[in-house]
From TrEMBL:
One of its GO terms (cellular component) is mitochondrial matrix. This is p32. Belongs to the MAM33 family. It comes from Drosophila busckii (Fruit fly). GO terms for biological process: cytosolic ribosome assembly. It comes from the Eukaryota. InterPro entries: MAM33, MAM33_sf.
Amino acid sequence: QRNLLEFVTAEIIEERRVQLQLEQPYVIDGFTGHFSGSKVELVRETPQERINIFFNVSKSVPRRCDESGDLSPVRSVPKFEVLIRRNDLLLSIFCVYKPAAFGETDGEGDADDVVFEIQDLSLYKNGWNDSCFTIDASLIDDNLQSMLLHVLEEKGITQEFARRLSDMATAHEHALYIEFLENLSKFTVGLP
């Protein structure tokens, strides 16, 4: 346990040294952030509609080694749900970051400017339940996908917004990792 405690203590010191700070208020392009543990909700409301974006930073950082064995920068890329509410109808669009997002390439040239894509969609009344129909975005027409991405852009959920969302997620995930290390240290020495 002593080796573990020494290692965790050194890790806490190093992680605090490189820690990014989230500045209050937590706002991205008019969306206000609310944090509850690893869960994050961004909200923007207009008289016509309410838009919520939900994501969880747990397990949102992919493996860090590239093919050469070098460590790549740590970046949180959580799946996120965009929920657009109009009256009692809700359009749910689940989005994922592309594997080649943020400068990583697949060996075929420069990284694409597109960092996220739609994974699946639902449209339902009042609230979601298991009987609501959800469709995998890969099964819908490319033109419809493009139009839905355009709808997201009109709502402010652009590729640049997704980059800033990842920045926020990265800072929040890192703060939670440091908190985890501090709690592990307390656990190791038997403190309540």
